[in-house]
Design a protein that fits this description.
- With 169 residues, this protein is mainly beta.
- It contains no helices and 14 strands.
- Strands 1-7-5-3-4 form a five-stranded antiparallel β-sheet, with no helix packed on it. It has a five-stranded antiparallel β-sheet with strand order 8-12-11-9-10, with no helix packed on it. The protein has a two-stranded antiparallel sheet with strand order 2-6.
Length: 169
């Protein structure tokens, strides 16, 4: 019988590699999801669950790779990436990720604690505000204070609809 070692939260990493889907341009700090083939894909619609945030790229042996020419944040997967090069995206899949996002309209103090989905521009869609479900939960308004100038469309959110299970369940 093989022994398994389960690391404590403090000893394990929340960054995991996933095979990039073919023919996509991935950018660091994008929200990503696993598609039905089990490959890493860019989060593009409100009904997709969030796997995490893309933090890097590696070859099939786990070594860092170069970004696209002229870029320091993007990598384009080849049309046969899943079978040939097998470049992976490194994803922070942590369940306690907080992200600062812009919204497509102003937020109010009454929105604190509410859940939201993203729109096609990868902004918080204020019209999706809900007390019960959504991909992101607003935890703070204008977290940086924009150097004394209030920005009513910026908020600090936690990923609430995680691909590895809803955080509230």
């Amino acid at each position: 019988m093989a022994k398994s070692i389960i690391k404590s939260r403090a000893e394990r990493s929340d960054s995991l590699p996933y095979l990039l889907d073919d023919s996509n341009t991935f950018t660091l700090e994008q929200f990503v999801t696993l598609n039905s083939d089990g490959h890493l894909d860019i989060l593009t619609t409100a009904d997709e669950k969030v796997l995490g945030v893309l933090t890097g790229f590696a070859d099939k042996f786990g070594k860092s790779i170069d970004f696209d020419s002229g870029s320091n944040v993007a990598f384009t997967a080849a049309s046969d990436n899943t079978t040939v090069a097998q470049v992976q995206g490194i994803v922070d899949v942590g369940r306690n990720i907080w992200v600062q996002l812009d919204a497509d309209a102003s937020l109010a103090i009454t929105n604190l604690g509410q859940y939201f989905d993203l729109n096609d521009a990868i902004e918080i869609d204020v019209a999706t505000a809900s007390d019960t479900n959504g991909a992101f939960q607003l935890i703070k308004l204008d977290p940086e204070g924009n150097q004394g100038v209030a920005d009513a469309s910026v908020g600090l959110y936690r990923i609430a609809d995680h691909q590895f299970g809803h955080l509230d369940s």
